[in-house]
TrEMBL record:
GO biological process: transition metal ion transport
Subcellular location field: Cell membrane
Principal location listed in the UniProt entry: membrane
GO cellular component: plasma membrane
Membrane-topology annotation of the record: Multi-pass membrane protein
Transmembrane residue ranges: 7-31, 43-65, 77-103, 115-137
One Pfam family in the UniProt entry: CbiM
Keywords, comma-separated and alphabetical: Cell membrane, Membrane, Transmembrane, Transmembrane helix, Transport
InterPro entries linked to this entry: CbiM/NikMN (IPR002751)
Name of this chain's protein: Cobalamin biosynthesis protein CbiM
Taxonomic source organism: marine sediment metagenome
Amino acid sequence: HLVGGTLVAIILGPWASVIVLFLILVIQSLFGDGGITALGANTFNMGIIGGIVGFYLVLLFVRLLNNTSLKKELKVTIATAIGSYIAIVLASFICGIEIGISGTIPIEIAVPAMVFWHILIGIGEAIISALIVYYIYKTKPDFITTESILKVK
């Protein structure tokens, strides 16, 4: 399923994304998806890596794309796709390390397994996040509260 950390960070801001993802994870844990004991690790992986790191990756790629003649909405869309993809793969790498450290599964199995699947999952995350940001940018750009931070030219 879509994690959406980078997507939420672009719309509401990087710090708000951590709170939003934490609340989503609490609700999911009430339904037995993730659990309370994994709440801290999941919040770190999805909220901080997915949200905050993802946001600053988007910021980096927007700044790189500002040197091109692309339209503003395309710059943000492309940067969102790249940033959300990298954030998901990075979060899966960190999660694999956490699983390995926990002793549940050896780290040499956990890390490659997590990263392999999230390299594939990240494609969907990137496409969905980019399409949503593009749609919002075209229809209601004021919903993207971080535009002043992104400094899209």
